[in-house]
Amino acid sequence: MKIAQVTPLYEAVPPKLYGGTERVVAHLTDALVDLGHDVTLFAAADAETRARLIPVRDQAIRLDPTPLKSDLAAHMSMLSEVLKRVDEFDVIHFHTDMVHFPFFARHADKTITTLHGRLDLKDLPGVYERWDEFALVSISDDQRRPLPMANWKATVHHGMPADLYKFSESSSGYLAFLGRISPEKGPDRAIEIATKLNKPLKMAAKIDSQDKVYWETVIRPMVESNPLVEFVGEIGDHQKSAFLGGAEALLFPIDWPEPFGLVMIEAMACGTPVVAFRCGSVPEIIEDGGTGYLVDTVEQAIAAAGRAHLLDREAIRARFELRFSATAMARRYLDVYGDLLARRPFAEEPLADVVTPLRPHEGRSFAGLA
To answer: Does the pTM exceed 0.90?
Structure first.
């Protein structure tokens, strides 16, 4: 198939440091190329990809030092470039929320849109009811709950290359927190859990501008007054094998409807168990007592983190390879693409040469399938 991948422009593809959506797009794009498909990536010029790159900005927005930038203008320019080439592709896969809907209404039947964020926002239902011709993919079943009427076609869990992170047979005895310093991510809970266990906690996290007050007034004082806590800052992929692999457990003490939680499968790739609060997608990702523990309270998290070292790290890595590899993710998306092509008017596409076999999967979740 000739496939276009259209990514947000906030981070490089893959991100240099923190970043979820663009990292997933990078893994998916390369996996589709490896499976023999003709893939074009629309992204900033600093992207690293095995696909054909159409650069639509000189660099990703967040790390661009230019003081004044327009996120909207950058994305509108990118969508214009995609629209000029719309006839070149069998499938155009958008990862840009809903911003492309007015541009591509005439071409909706050749698009797939993966929604990567939370969907319990006031204005979203009207958008997805107005542009219901666009086929949508969720990244967890739980993500769909605020928009049950939307045009969902599948759930496809994220994946990443099996060789990206190294498996670690044993830990160095500390607990890890990886992600973003914000109230919904629960860094205060992570510090409390580690402190009650008297275990070292390493925190590798990004601090967004909107969370600086929370960092300065709540988390930073907790870090600086606690000898058990080490704040590492943002880290990139090349640092995660050591950071996650050395951990006895990853703490994922979230307090929001997490759509997926990429850091959970990053830990699993290293063989590291995850202690996670039962919010959002978490029960779909973590197998309680197998790849980690599901908890509802800080007290339960303390007990779970205290016994996480008893879990089989090789088994955790094996579950990652089965459920969350980039190849598994790409094959699930190929099912979605094939279903999209099969629904087009017969004369529009030479379907016999596009995908074999074509299997309808409307409304079906691919979560957990190899």
So the answer is: no
